[in-house]
Write a structure and sequence with these properties.
about 500 residues; 4-stranded antiparallel β-sheet
Length: about 500
């Protein structure tokens, strides 16, 4: 006969049960209000994110360690929305915690530098003078030690900010520094190291000849400064189209090519990123390395509290794992996923739902698609002024729609489609040179409007343009067909969304 269990209470056990109950209660009553949505999925712009929340959910990809180190120059190049500013924000905070003197230079700081000349050598000189002055002024200001005549004294050191600061900054009892500032100053006086982050340079970018010259001169200038001052470590972020124009317009930038870090993500990393955001929202810590080892179906289990596990719509997507739907719709950019889920979360909120449903997603696909289309036009207009005409020209014809052939092309079919668009007028690059048909195809691949595509037993294998081929405008066939990325299809075919569901096959992962 089984003995009756002793009736006793365990305070630790009760506390854990209470905590689990609160977590489950919160899970089962998700609030998708604007405030909670932003806390859950994160802000689209890292600079507008709460610093502590950003630290809580930030996922360090392999690129992070390639950027944050004691190499003199790192140039982070990537598409818009890839997370360059977020990487910089986290890196700045982390270096500051390690008492490194860390400075952030934004577009407002460099207004006017190099605006008055087209002479390239003078442009580089102006940038070197301007950057050294900004470094010196920001460093002095950060310690509350800016003084009249600082610029004249800087000139006595030949404009070299590091030498000037090493000789000028001193621990002085008369200066009232916080403990953290004093620690940073001590560290600088001991090692003479400064990390300088230059971010958001594409703000207001128009791709004019002078804009390209200024960026090229800036890259040359920071390379010279970091070489001449071995304690200054520059990290510069550039949008991929900005870097492309600078790199192909000025042969001197080949000297900085070894310092370029192409920032990219795999879909698996982006799914792990989402899991970390959701788990950190609920106050739970996760091991990034362990998450990376898990299959995506296992990662999906972490997301069940906020979104349906299966897509319950029609067509090829019916009953598909939700993670495959999400990964098929993003262009390997974290911001795409944030935007997609935020839009769907708003629909869930308006419907008084405590979990994002298939219907919520279906209702925002067109809005999401229009946004991605406009993002692409805005991002690449400086390289190809008529990019909007090119992209809208890729809409399927009535004959293609009837034959369900509007978005997938063999190489011959793609080139034929582009030649038909060219009949309305030839395209020209921003520099005035005419674009041939194969260059148009390469451009569409480069900007991720089309992807390479191959059918496999697990699903569609989609390949994106490889960054190490970014500087080539050559279109090379390598055994794949070509496909308009799913993210754009609702914008190109808003009148018949159900046909998209019936035709679009999901990515393998």
């Amino acid at each position: 006969m089984r003995k009756k269990a002793a009736n006793f209470t365990n305070p630790v056990f009760e506390a854990l049960e209470a905590l689990n109950f609160r977590i489950l209660n919160r899970v089962n009553n998700m609030d998708f209000s604007e405030y909670e949505l932003q806390k859950l999925f994160g802000h689209e712009a890292a600079e507008d994110e709460d610093p502590q929340r950003l630290k809580d959910y930030y996922f360090k990809s392999k690129a992070y360690k390639q950027v944050v180190n004691d190499l003199p120059l790192r140039i982070v190049v990537g598409h818009k929305g890839i997370g360059k500013s977020a990487l910089f924000q986290v890196a700045i905070d982390e270096e500051a915690e390690n008492n490194r003197l860390t400075l952030l230079i934004k577009p407002d700081d460099i207004i006017g530098i190099g605006e008055d000349t087209d002479d390239f050598l003078k442009l580089i000189r102006d940038w070197k003078i301007g950057i050294n002055e900004i470094i010196a002024k920001k460093a002095l200001t950060s310690f509350g030690l800016l003084f009249d005549g600082w610029r004249g004294k800087l000139n006595q050191y030949g404009g070299a900010a590091l030498d000037f600061l090493s000789s000028t900054l001193k621990l002085d009892d008369s200066v009232n520094l916080t403990a953290s500032k004093e620690a940073v100053l001590k560290e600088f006086l001991k090692h003479n190291k400064i990390s300088v982050y230059i971010d958001d340079l594409d703000r207001g970018w128009q791709g004019r000849k002078h804009d390209i010259q200024r960026i090229s001169a800036l890259l040359n200038a920071v390379r010279d400064i970091s070489t001449e001052n071995r304690g200054i470590f520059f990290r510069v972020s550039l949008r991929s189209d900005v870097y492309y124009l600078a790199r192909t317009s000025d042969e001197s930038t080949d000297k900085t090519e070894s310092s370029v870090i192409w920032y990219s993500w795999t879909n698996h990393e982006i799914l792990v990123l989402l899991v970390k955001r959701v788990e950190s929202y609920f106050g739970r810590k996760v091991d990034e390395d362990e998450l990376l080892k898990k299959h995506q179906s296992e990662l999906m289990k972490y997301l069940i509290p906020v979104i349906e596990e299966k897509f319950t719509g029609k067509g090829h997507w019916s009953n598909a794992p939700m993670y495959r739907v999400l990964m098929s719709l993003i262009r390997k950019r974290p911001r795409d996923l944030v935007k997609l889920l935020t839009l769907a979360g708003r629909k869930a909120y308006s419907s008084d739902l405590d979990k994002i449903s298939t219907a919520n997603l279906e209702s925002i696909f067109e809005e999401y698609s229009q946004g991605r289309l406009q993002d692409t036009i805005n991002e690449y207009r400086s390289e190809l002024p008529a990019v909007e005409k090119l992209i809208l020209g890729m809409r399927p014809s009535k004959i293609q729609r009837r034959a369900s052939q509007g978005y997938v092309y063999s190489t011959d079919q793609l080139l034929k489609k582009l030649k038909a668009i060219e009949e309305q007028g030839k395209f020209r690059w921003a520099n005035g040179n005419q674009v041939d048909t194969k260059e148009l195809a390469a451009f569409l691949y480069k900007i991720n409007f089309i992807t390479a595509r191959k059918e496999t037993s697990a699903g569609i294998d989609r390949k994106y343009f490889e960054e190490n081929r970014y500087l080539s405008n050559k279109f090379t066939e390598f055994g794949y067909d070509w496909e308009v990325h799913p993210a754009y299809r609702w914008a190109l075919q808003p009148e018949d969304p159900m046909q998209i569901f019936n035709e679009l096959e999901l990515s393998a992962n």
